[in-house]
Amino acid sequence: MSITSDGMPDNSIVIDVENVTQRFRVYQERPDSIRALFAKFFRYEIQVHDFDAVKDVSFHVGKGEMVGIVGRNGSGKSTLLKVVAGVYRPTLGRVTVRGTIAPMIELGAGFHSELTGRENVLMNGLLLGYSKREMKEREQKIIEFAEIGDFIDAPVKQYSSGMYMRLAFAVAIEVDPDILLVDEILSVGDMGFQEKCFERLRRFREARKTILFVTHNVKDVEEYCDRAILLDQGRVLLDGKPHEVIEMYSAITAASHPHEEVLEPAVGQ
After folding, report:
1. Which long-range contacts (CB under 8 A, 24 or more apart) does 127-132 make?
2. Closest by CA position to 253, among listed 31, 35, 268, 240
3. Average pLDDT of each block of 10 consecutive residues along the chain (269 residues)?
4. How far apart are CA 104 and CA 183, in angstroms?
5. Residues 164-207: pLDDT tens digits?
6. Cα torsion at 216, 76, 167, 266 (round to 10°)?
7. At a CB cut-off of 8 Å and minimum separation 6, what does 13 contact?
8. Backbone angles phi, psi at 217, to 5 degrees
9. pLDDT tens by residue, 91-103
């Protein structure tokens, strides 16, 4: 927990990440069946190694801040966001979150493919702690924002990735969370809808909501974020002003991949 100069807890901090390491066990061979996997495992014939996707990461986010997280593919950005969202329990360290969270981490995560869009809106709202009546009151605004027309009554397995994104975003903003976690989801969809999403994010900021935003698009970080964090190989290289972080990120990208375009949005870890 962050502490003020007088030794008291800082109640303005809504996300506190303290010395977090997220470790995964990697199996170096893939047996044909679960039975074969267990047989090899108990005979000590299968080779495994541990991989730290996030390594001793610490940072905090204040109420009303919009913080961008940038880094190359494989740097641990998405894993870190899932740790903050509670999808993963950190192997080491601690995450403290104060307030309600709407995680927009994976397209369609939390959607049931056989249910309609309308049914998924209700189900997601219930999972976030809202009553059926409250979600019915929000339903029409969600449908209008998502811009998916009659597909709202079709099973979501028929949706394109853009339709998934629009409905997921519409649900997240209408349940009015204290904290919004966004992972590359705004890179899907046409420019008009993206601008509408960012306009809603601006209104969230004006209402003193907190946003943690993973992206490859440094233009968005520079334009919208108060602060930025650069991850590389699971570690924080820099936590500071957006232009400072972008400058270091661009230098690292140019050195490792001279022909890679940093400004282009791309989905990845």
Report:
1. 128/100, 128/102, 128/175, 128/177, 129/100, 130/175
2. 268
3. 44 92 78 60 64 96 95 93 93 95 71 92 85 92 91 93 83 86 72 83 89 89 94 96 95 74 42
4. 6
5. 888 888 888 888 889 999 887 666 567 788 888 888 888 888 89
6. 30
7. 1, 2, 60, 61, 62, 63, 98
8. -85, 100
9. 999 999 999 888 8
> How wide is the angle at C-alpha 221 spanned by C-alphas 178 and 226, nearest 5°?
55
Any idea where the domains of the chain sit in the sequence? Answer: 64-89+100-256
**pLDDT of the residue at 240:** 96
Q: How far apart are CA 151 and CA 165, in angstroms?
A: 13
**Whole-angstrom Cα distance, residue 17 to residue 36?**
39
Nearest C-alpha neighbor of 104 from the set 171, 57, 149, 151: 171
**Which pTM does this prediction carry?**
0.79
Long-range contacts of 2-11 (CB under 8 A, 24+ apart): 2/60, 11/98
Tokens of 239: 């936590």
* Spatial separation of the C-alpha atoms in residues 212 and 228, rounded to whole Å: 10
SS3 269: coil
CA distance 157 to 154: 8
Dihedrals phi, psi of 84, to nearest 5 degrees: -65, -40
Q: What is the pLDDT of residue 6?
A: 40
180 burial type by CB count under 10 A (0-12 exposed, 13-18 middle, 19+ buried): buried
Question: CATH classification of 64-89+100-256 is 3.30.1280.10, yes or no?
Answer: no
